[in-house]
Write a structure and sequence with these properties.
Length: 305
């Protein structure tokens, strides 16, 4: 693997569960792996004991120079590590780096040699990353290139999307130190970034030829799991994607009876609804008052008829 590239694994509180490191080595990646941690992680020594190269950044310093999108002052999020990576790569003498979450269980090809849709295990990640870098270098306006996630392939065999490069960029990010950009928004920073910058003409893409597999959102302690679980902003779907929580509608309630006696006097004094009154109950013609008997709003001279 080329020496000016490294795989960055962004992690927090999961020194014993950095699944991505194992998946990279098992599937043919021979290049440099950098474990990116923040200085607020109480398990830093565990990381240093387990991995050869651990880089620690100043989380508070990063927070002071980026747009978190809120004023909650809760830094249990990956946005700080994502933004720190450009400086880390530059300090390490790298030109390119791939940002990866720590919970990937594998990588799969989706396009067969016969140009059909399929799914089989990647055995040469060096070759995959080299191909992505070749595409990246040949596209000077490209800010970042991502691998697809599981949900991106729903219906892909029918639609033909598996053949394409899409204007989407989430979760994994191939970046260059000379094409920097800022991730924005404490939660869902990946979507916030590619949609915001994409709307301004910046180019963010995702290849459908290679997909990554990862654990279900919020099932793995550490990382951002505690932040998600402590907030009702997101809930995990069965497919492992985070979706906005839906508000539960309140049951309908009747409007209270009018409190003012003078207003109540103008409402119906007639028999209950469902009977055949000899004289239809009346409210003021054209009035929108509610009937004190049936609590129904009426714009006609009669009510409870």
């Amino acid at each position: 693997m080329r020496s000016d590239f490294a795989a960055f694994i962004l992690t927090h509180g999961r020194a014993d569960r950095v699944l991505t490191h194992r998946s990279l080595r098992r599937q043919g990646y021979t290049g440099r792996i950098v474990i990116v941690c923040d200085d607020e992680d109480p398990t830093l020594e565990d990381y240093r004991a387990r991995f050869d190269e651990v880089v620690v950044f100043d989380k508070r310093a990063v927070a002071q120079r980026i747009d978190e999108g809120d004023n909650f002052n809760d830094r249990r999020a990956i946005i700080y590590a994502r933004n720190a990576c450009f400086d880390i790569a530059r300090d390490l003498g790298l030109r390119y780096f791939m940002q990866l979450d720590d919970d990937y269980t594998g990588f799969s090809h989706k396009r067969t040699p016969g140009d059909t849709y399929g799914d089989w295990r990647v055995r040469d990640l060096d070759g995959v990353f080299a191909a992505m870098l070749e595409f990246f270098e040949a596209t000077p306006r490209l800010r970042s290139l991502a691998m697809a996630q599981g949900g991106d392939y729903i219906g892909a065999g029918v639609s033909g999307n598996w053949k394409r490069v899409l204007r989407k960029c989430m979760n994994s990010f191939l970046c260059a130190v000379d094409r920097p950009f800022q991730f924005v928004g404490r939660i869902n920073e990946d979507v916030n970034t590619y949609t915001t910058l994409g709307s301004r003409g910046e180019l963010f893409l995702m290849t459908m030829h290679v997909g990554l597999q990862q654990l279900t959102t919020q099932s793995n302690p550490g990382g951002m799991t505690e932040l998600y679980l402590s907030s009702e902003a997101v809930k995990a779907s069965p497919e492992g994607q985070a979706w906005p929580a839906r508000a539960t509608p309140s049951p309908p309630t009747h409007a209270p009876s009018l409190p003012d006696a003078s207003l109540r006097a103008r409402t119906c004094e007639g028999p209950a609804r469902g009977t055949s009154p000899s004289a239809p109950a009346r409210i003021g013609a054209g009035s929108s008052m509610r009937c004190a008997r049936c609590e129904r709003s009426s714009f006609s001279p009669t009510c409870c008829a």
